[in-house]
Amino acid sequence: QKEVEQNSGPLSVPEGAIASLNCTYSDRGSQSFFWYRQYSGKSPELIMFIYSNGDKEDGRFTAQLNKASQYVSLLIRDSQPSDSATYLCAVGRKSSGDKLTFGTGTRLAVRP
Amino acid sequence: DTAVSQTPKYLVTQMGNDKSIKCEQNLGHDTMYWYKQDSKKFLKIMFSYNNKELIINETVPNRFSPKSPDKAHLNLHINSLELGDSAVYFCASSQEVRQAAKNIQYFGAGTRLSVL
Questions:
Q1: pLDDT of residue B39
Q2: d(CA B19, CA A93)
Q3: Which of A23, A36, B2, B47 could make an S-S bridge to B66, C-beta 3.0–4.6 Å?
Q4: Do B55 and A97 touch (CB under 8 A)?
Q5: Are A5 and A25 in contact, with CB atoms under 8 Å apart?
């Protein structure tokens, strides 16, 4: 079992729709959860982070965390073609030296 | 002003050569990292340093040697390059946060290494 799992996609949604990206993780001791966006040929860019169960909203983005189910998701409302990118889920744990373990990413394509 | 800068951006070299990639951050962060992203886009930690001290050393061939002359710099030297070393190498930095693992990592632009 991979430590952090994501569906590789592509996830295709029409412009204006809600895109839902999902991530599961295996380490129950994980403490921090991050979503990075990576455009092709570019570096990962942090979009959201969440540490506690529940929802966290920032503009069009909402991160959802359920530690009991070991599940974290990212919702993108009013999707735009500029949101087309690979979204990387990353999980951190202090005892592992602040390293982040990344999933393989989900490619999102927003159709105009 | 680029927060985390890596040089070179592209590196094309022959098998067996030795090469270095440099990374500098001007964010005042305590911790720096090297990640490798392979052709399938999987991003994996290689090393991390906190205030010049090695913290994380994943299962990486000892041909890879990180060096941190000060907390703003973390360089990566690779000996005897192999075809399988071809990848994008990302440097990142974060400010140490004592509680949990709440350190947000900021990435450099990456160095695309091609070994021929």
A1: 85
A2: 32
A3: B47
A4: yes
A5: yes
A vs B: CB pairs below 8 A: 67
Residue B85 DSSP code = G
Token digits of residue A23: 């991530």
List beta partners, residue A93. none
Q: Please state, in angstroms and rounded to a whole number, the distance separating the CA atoms of residues B33 and B89.
A: 10
CA distance A82 to B40: 22
Q: What is the mean pLDDT of each run of 10 residues along chain B (116 residues)?
A: 90 97 94 91 89 82 92 95 96 76 85 96
Cis peptide before B66 (omega within 30 of 0): no
Beta-bridge partners for A34: A49, A90
Inform me whether the pLDDT recorded for A97 exceeds 70.
no
The alpha-carbon gap from A77 to the nearest alpha carbon of chain B, in Å, equals: 24
Q: In chain B, whose CA is at the least distance from the CA of A51?
A: B102
